[in-house]
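Quick question, first post here. What does this chain look like in 3D?
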Amino acid sequence: MTAKNDTQKSEKNPVGNPGKYPNKKRARLTSVAFVESPLQFLSALESHEPTEDLLIRARANAKGMTSFLDAFDPAWLPDNVRLEREGAKPGVLRKADFDRIYLGDACSGQVHKALSLAYLERRLPEVVILDDGLATYSTIEILTAKRGPLVRPRQKLKASRTVMAAHVADRLRGLATTGRLRWHTALPVSKDLRRAFLKTGGEITRHRFEHLQTLPTGGSHPRDNPVIGTALAADGLIDAAAYRAWIGDLVDAHGSITYYPHRRETDAFLTDLARDDRIRIKHVGLPIELRLVNLPPGSTIRSLPSTAAVSLAVLNPDVTISVTEIPAQWWTGASPDSLRESLNAQTVKADVES
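> Answer (accepted):
Ran it through. Tokens below.
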């Protein structure tokens, strides 16, 4: 992935940076971001503009969020950014007339309820989709379709939730037609997906974790031989024994490793890993992007296809990201073909539009 297209303008609006209109003076914005994971939180920080008062509403009871929020230093927040551990509630949207809403998980039931109740008969402001891991691709594909609810792959909803998810999807598609739906991303975007989203009237803007790179979060060392964990086995999408064997093969081939577990990996699995004294389990609290951003040039990070691998390639292009494609026999059959193809298609040096 190269930086040559980082300021490439969308086909809808002549902007190279989010919300920056070169010939139009912008009034101060008031915005809210609903986030449910550490990556969504970091994405909200990257989306924040200097002339914007941003309230981040973090869902503290989501898996891994409490430990992340406890470890995150409030001093790392940009100016004019506030944090509340309340998540998405219709009340906060009713009490303030926000100019912009950032969505970390556009498929979240809590978010759907808040938007549906607060804006049932009101005009939605501009909405910005933030990165939510590789699942973001599925969200964008749904929004480029003419119809269909915002639902995660494999997720089965009750009828009432499906109606609400379809309602929110239609409202967001309507925003796209008026130029008020944007995707702000650090992920590689395929030409087909970019073309389809722009055709709806949506806009794509880019970041390279500029704010994150200013944070004094420390770093790691090449001797740690870092391996990024995945939730695919914990979620039942790939065979846990095959995944465990892959980690063992890495140790046999490269020596001792430092394993950074995904927040959804089980205690039982990690306990089994820890029985091998060549494997150091490192629970970091903060996202892997914050902990491995300062690896020195020439270091190697190993991983299955993951958002973290893509993010770290953006953050530190002098580090080698060794991504192992997931073999066909690992898949359990619990995921759709589109998800399997999408994951294995995500290479760090992809031939994509940025």
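Residues 159-177 form the longest helix (19 residues).
The longest strand covers residues 29-35.
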